[in-house]
Amino acid sequence: MAMSRQLQFDLRPSPVVLRLIIANVALWLLMLLLGDSAERLFVRPYLMVSSDGVVSHFYVWQPFTYMWLHDTAGIAHILFNMVGLFFLGPPLERRWGQRTFLKFYLLTGVIAGFFSVLVGLLIPSFDVPTLGASGSLLGLLAAWSMVLPNTQILLFFVLPVRTRYIVWIAIGLDLVVFFSSSSDSTRVGVHTHIGGALAGWLLITGNWRPRVAWYRLNQLINKGRGGGPKPPSSGKRTNLRVIRGGRDGGGRKDDDLLH
User: Fold this and answer.
1) In the annotation, is 134 catalytic?
2) List of domains in the chain
3) Which of 51, 116, 134, 145 is catalytic?
């Protein structure tokens, strides 16, 4: 994935992104050194996320720990996720600041983990131990689609695509891989990816707040009719209420707040 000049992409990783990459790679190397027995006896039952682990055994830390682990059977899993983080993370971190970016990264990963648990409860065939930072990566893609929608990237370094469409392309590719795979071991955690994208959308738009979601739903239903509820008042501000950084090309300044 390459960026157009429109974003003036800097190949130097930003501070939080660099630390996240180092932490993920270090843990992957540690898992590699510990071997299959450690993964089978400790990592898989206790640290990967699954509905059985969280609900039946009350391993409530799993929606956090799974996002730091990657498959040691090959290098593709860790490499793909870290390359994605390297390209997608720095522009958002520089736009939002280090603390907001880290919060967003962690929250999208955790929400994606809990979403996986929910899907596993509703569809038992999906309840397999899951690991990887892909939930957070899909959250970053969702952020790009909304915060920088008119930025053009070269998908696979060949195909020019506006970032407003990139999250849908990623989910579409996920679904193709999922339904074309014959075994659970080769299937991607498409439900975790969708959970990450959904988490990104909720945090960027503010629709995680019931009053905002209800207001916007009514606006959609009553579009063109007039009336409907009043916009939610600003009230008391919370840490999760807004993500700093206006839409690219949307006529807003960078210090605006995107709800």
Assistant:
1) yes
2) 2-206+242-258 (1.20.1540.10)
3) 134
